[in-house]
Amino acid sequence: MNPWSVNFCRLCAAPVTFYQNWRGRDYWQCDECHALQMDKQHLPERECETALYLTHENDVDDPRYQQFVSPITEAILSQITSDKIGLDFGAGPGPVISKIISEKGYQTKLYDPVFYPDNSVLTQQFDYIICCEVIEHFHQPAIEFARLKSLLSAGAKLFCMTQLFDEDIDFAKWHYKNDITHVFFYHRDSLNFIQQQFSFSTVAINQRLITFTN
């Protein structure tokens, strides 16, 4: 643990306290929003991230994959009408949610810095945004949530899916941290901070599904 790496939370800017070292990587917990974050000196390079993403088996026709993302799919189908325009932010190589809802008449644009790097889609606003297994990859979550907020029209919804961190988790055995591209783990307090800091009207937490309303 190098003294210079002691820093501040990359979400709320509060001080952080050393939490644990796992396989040579240091993790820190925010004293305020209680998010757990990988030390900045251990954040993976883009080339490493891309190589790992390409090993994921994200077949959009795989029923298991479709079931995995079903919390967001079902939320969109029940809360959003098909005349609305959405954005799949961080769509990855297999944008399964967009495929499923497109078959039901929904229109969704894709953005991913690696697989769909079309920055022109980030110049408009959307009625809903999909962030499925994306926010845990944010190296700078404060910057990314500010961007997501700017992309939402009035009353729009931001649907996120991730595994939350809490004090009952045995970090050494927690599989979610084993993916080295998972660098930021949110606590319920982190989500409440996001709601207040970025002026979302509400945040709803239902296990892996987090819904912010603009």
How is the secondary structure organized here?
Layout: E1 16-22, E2 25-30, E3 36-38, H1 46-53, H2 63-68, H3 70-79, E4 85-89, H4 96-102, E5 107-111, E6 126-132, H5 141-150, E7 152-161, E8 184-185, H6 188-197, E9 202-206, E10 209-213
Structural commentary:
- The protein is an alpha/beta fold.
- The chain has one domain (3-213): Rossmann fold (3-Layer(aba) Sandwich), CATH 3.40.50.
- It has six helices and ten strands.
- The protein has a six-stranded mixed β-sheet with strand order 5-4-6-7-10-9, sandwiched between helices. It has a four-stranded antiparallel β-sheet with strand order 1-2-3-8, with no helix packed on it.
- The longest helix has 10 residues, at 70-79.
- The radius of gyration is 17 Å and the shape is globular.
- The termini are far apart.
- The model is unreliable at 1-5 (pLDDT under 50).
